[in-house]
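User: I'm curious whether this sequence folds into something compact or stays loose and floppy. Could you predict its structure so I can see for myself?
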Amino acid sequence: MRIRSLCLSVFSVLLSVVPLHAQGTVPTFKYKTYTLMGGDPSKGDTTTVPTVLVPIRLNFEGQQVNGKPLVMDAFDDVARLLASPVFSRFAFPAGGNTQYADALLRSTFPAAKNWHVLLGKPEIKPITVTIPAGYGYVLTSKSEQKSISVLALRFVQKEIFKQLPKQDGKLVIALTPNATFFADDDDTICCTWGTHGVDRATGNSFVLSTYLHDAPSIIQDQDVQPVTQQLAEFVNDPLHDPLYEENQQGGPGNVVPNWLRPATMKPGDMGRCGGTGIATAYFVMEPTDISPKNNFPASKPFVMTRQGAPYHVQNVATLPWYVGASEGTGKTYSFPETSLYTQPATPCPGGRHRHDTATAPSTVPPAPLKGAPNGHELIGYWQNGGYAEQIAHNSPQWDVYIVAFSGPAPNAPEGTMKFDTPRDMTDAQFKAQIAELHKQGKKVLISLGGGGVHFSLNDAKQVPVFVSTVSKIVSDYGFDGVDIDFESPSLDVAPGDADFRHPKTPSIVNVIAGLHQMHDHFGSKFMITLVPEGSQAPGGYPRYGGQFGSYLALSYGLRDILSFMDVQDYNTPPLQGLDGEIYQSHTTDYHAAMTELILQGFNVGGDPKLPYPGLSADKVAVGFLTDYEDPKGATEAMAYLITGKAPAGVKYKLRNPNGYPKLLGAMFWNMDDDRRENYRYSNVMGPLLHGYPAAK
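Assistant: Here's the prediction. I'll summarize afterward.
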């Protein structure tokens, strides 16, 4: 008794006993500066949190299967969820025989022997959410006949709470069937299993996630793993505001020391900063997640069995992992698998991303360019990475230089574009470098737009302004043409605009008209290129509207004057190939499947009455991202597409078994990283492309 009294006195100092009911609808307590779900551990009481379970019926507007509306319903998953560790008692290695959330908290505060935080038997309140074009689509594996939907997270959250008023004192658990989500209503910010926190509109405390039952085999996580992930994060951060920009980077909710992503995270992320929140910003993913960006989340589960039924729950980082163990907490850094992390997180040394500061000059020389032009080109974006870097300092392997970016002029009429001379250079110096590249036979384009830049050209009367301001930039600097990088939502297809061949969306119609006028002005050598995100081109295969397929109208309307199109195979969610199978980025299968959609064409939105004819191979390039894509994987994908010879392990079979010998080439964002990283992309991709026989 004396030992227990001493432990509880420590809790009394460290924990605030005043519940924070003013924010959210569940009881909370304070540990130091951190708010967690439940009652005060020092009191040793049991807190039962009333729960509302909301199974969601998803109705995909305008989409049909076998003549019937496309619907997915989570109601059948209710019984499975109730029998799972979310609501039923299971034996945990730490935390005892109890529910998942309670065991997580008890592993964090092991001194509170008789303390529990339990979810009560839920009220069941089913609702229907209609998903319009632009806010989600369904992927169905042809061989398995199993489906997964990809939904706009913010949209779904808002639609739920339009129907669900404030639930005083209760936790809302909203459940979708076989769904993954993209954040910020932008499907290039993908994928997550859900979100959690306090809904702004209603003040409800909530967890929004999915139950995975009979999902396609490409999905590695199973059953309640997504739900337990979001529930664990809610327990450790119940006041999180999921609509706060950059989520947990200084927004509402718990703010923890900036942590370094561990080796167990997704490829390419180790050594990057994870942020200052519980889980990562936007994706709200655990440090245990190992899936690359824009793929379905995946991580090692902890398998639990009760009465012969196995359940897969999420391994998560505990609060002590983020903030360090101290009086009142244990030294359990991961849960339920306690051996996963044996030390707290490593603090992040400095900025959130690599290349925040100048890097040392390259120690490996660029590969020399050999041979005559052969019809295959290496295309790169140059964004003036600073540190006195010059455009002419890049590898001679690059054939097309795309300067990023020209953007809309602030406080100016719609359509007005501007371009600032890159830093560390005068106008005369930059123009001289472009002229020097021209002497070497290179093409130099100016890219219009860029990520995070909103562009609109809704007023047809402003087309001359767009044409004149862009034309002046082209003429002043000697650019060979323009690259169109108006990313979603700049050119989103408007509601009711159903036929890409006859677009009605004003910005799309006016941009097509303006580019034709520029081409007429400069002549046949004027280059026009398109660089859509994945959703904007191959994304039009499963569904058309909004961000999905918005560049199909552009490529079709410009088909006679288009130089090439290179889809960003990195700013893209999971999509479906012509073989009816689902593919994820960062793989040769994905590059092959997405590129062949553009080459072969497809039925837009799955409608045989809307066939997209595709582009000739000499007008198609494949877009790669430095750091995200390994050079070996990129070269394997290009070799497969050009020759038809599949590397080991590839599942997607080309419709053209001999490949596409006339395929234009590869694009990389960006040249700056390539140069700083010892030309590790251009030194392998350039010789590969330039070493093929001339395309005939």
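Summary: The chain has two domains: 2-258, 377-690. The two ends are 88 Å apart (CA to CA).
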